[in-house]
Amino acid sequence: MIEFTFPAMGRAIILIAICAWAALLSHKCISNFNDGARPVFPELMEGRMTRTEFAVTITGMGFGWVLAGFSQWLGYGLIACHLTLIATDCLGAWAPNKWVAIGLGAAWGALCFWGTAGINAAFSALPYNFLNDLTNISTPALPVFCMYPAVAVAGQYDAKKGITTGIIQVAVYVLCTIVGKVQFAKFAVSLYPYTFAMLAGMIMLVVYAVGAKKEAAVETTDEEENLFEKNSKRIKANWLYLCIQGALNALGIATLAQAYQPATLSAAVQAGDIAVFKIAMIGVIIAFIPLIVSTSLATGVYQAVGLTACMLAGSFFYGKLWFLAPIAGFAVEFIEIQLLGLLGKLLAKFPGLSQAGDHIRDAMVSCIGLALTIGSFLAANAMWGAVGLCIVGGFYTVNEVTGQRLPKTAVGPIAAVAVGVLYNIMILCGFIVLG
Amino acid sequence: MLKIECCGLSATQTKQIIEKNFAGHVEPLAGPDMVAARRVKAGETDFYLGSCMTGAGGSLATAIMVLGYSNCLVVSKQGKCPTAKEIRHMVYAGKHKAFGYVKEHTDIVVPAVVQALVDRAEGIPE
């Protein structure tokens, strides 16, 4: 279980502030969180869609993600951006004016905080409290996620290079567990194996990328240059709004009021070693830059968490000097916005970067999805043995053949909760007697 | 012979599906999205397929930027994958150049979209 050190009321206020501000920015078409919905914003801004049409489209794209965010909370015990910011995208889209947007956002933040607390309380009141079993969902998170560089290498190049990377990562992992600790003069550095296995894999990614043949640069037309220029100016003009969001996001991470990459963050917090989260975030930032920069420059709408660097900045103040986190978040966001035009030019010059980003994101998502699914099976097994496994397995496959109504990452944890609830019903009916 | 660009998260899988099912009818290409979208705009290649987590963001961002929103179609969204028949209708009903879908729906969407594109090019009615 996650132990929160920051006072609950403080976390609630921070979460409400994050959500209210994000909803305002979505309403004003300044930034949004769902990269998939970003290309729709110009349709509203340039009058090709009414606000209602726009809101319906945005909500249709976001619904599955809010569910995924909820299941992340079930599995990892942290309120992740998918639960908060995807919803504020939609609420901001529906709001008729900015005050309603702020109000709806704040209400959603409050609902997220006290709603999840209420569900926790309800679970504890059941005859069999399965919350403890549910934490099994996070068991495979880090072990599977830290292998993402091998998956990315295999996807981008070939299986042989992927396996080589995988073997190196495992070797580094084993080495760290054997050595355990390194003594530098007075400082003892403990070698958390996941951190260094992931780091080794990321170095291999860079080694292969440097050795690969370079793609020819792209010739951008004047029309595109003008579009880039116009949109980059629009984002820069909104810098104050965006930097405040960056500051709030960083504060969210420092206090755990809101999480980003909850799989790694939750594991890092439980292990008491935040370094593994920082290393993972470096990979995340690299992987997301091509996607976020290209969608932002194409639309003039920025990402609510920027290039995600504000999350890394916030993690430096986790557990200590939390009040400095907003300053760091503000500064990092400001620098990002200034670099946006330059990054766009860089992406045109090295088109291979965006392909590499695709492969890394694909690898991360595959690893997290797999870890959540395996974790759900572990949790179900802990609760109800074979019956639990049977229910989660059935739930998962039925969702597959009926066209994935629930996102793949959401179905496992939701099924695991269903197992816990059913188990309690069985107890209440007297079919199962707890020993 | 149609030339189709395969981009996004499941680009490799998309290319393999086309090679397996449409050998001789379609030539799949896998290049960086920035290059691919421009080749479609210049008319060097015919269509752009892209996948991502949402079916509309990473998959189509570059295509929307280069080809314009009205030339891009979101085929599948998270939590809603249309059937082959619905996909065929979507393709025939519009004149889109780029198609986006959720990466997990690749094996359902790609054969249906490409079949519809091939049939339409050969003048076969819906």
The CATH superfamily label of chain B reads Sugar-phosphate isomerase, RpiB/LacA/LacB
Uncertain regions spanning at least 5 consecutive residues of chain B: none
Which structural class fits the helix and strand makeup of chain A? mainly alpha
Can you summarize the main beta sheet of chain A? 2 strands, parallel
Can you give the mean pLDDT of chain B? 88
Q: Note the overall shape of chain A.
A: globular
Supply the number of structural domains of chain B: 1
* Lateral arrangement of strands in the main beta sheet of chain B: 2-1-3-5-4
Q: How many strand segments of chain B?
A: 5
Number of strands of chain A: 4
CATH architecture field of chain B: 3-Layer(aba) Sandwich
What does this structure look like?
The complex is a heterodimer of chains A (435) and B (126). Chain A is mostly helical and 435 residues long. Chain A is built from 18 helices and 4 strands. Chain A has helices at residues 8-27, 41-45, 51-76, 81-94, 98-125, 131-134, 141-145, 148-156, 159-179, 193-211, 222-237, 239-255, 262-271, 275-299, 309-315, 325-349, 352-401, 408-428, and strands spanning 31-32, 181-184, 187-190, 302-303. In chain A, the strands form 2 sheets. Chain A has a two-stranded parallel sheet with strand order 1-4. In chain A, a hairpin with a 2-residue loop joins β2 and β3 (187-190). In chain A, α1 runs antiparallel to α5 (98-125), α3 packs antiparallel against α4 and α15 (309-315) runs antiparallel to α16. The relative contact order of chain A is 0.14. Chain B has 126 residues and is α/β, with parallel strands linked by helices. Chain B has a single domain (2-121), classed as Sugar-phosphate isomerase, RpiB/LacA/LacB (Ribose 5-phosphate Isomerase B, Chain: A), CATH 3.40.1400.10. Chain B has 5 helices and 5 strands; from the N terminus they run βαβαβαβαβα. Chain B has helices at 11-21, 33-41, 61-67, 84-93, 106-121, and strands spanning 2-8, 26-29, 47-52, 72-74, 98-102. In chain B, strands 2-1-3-5-4 form a 5-stranded parallel sheet, sandwiched between helices. In chain B, α2 runs parallel beside α3. The two termini of chain B are 20 Å apart. The mean pLDDT of chain B is 88.
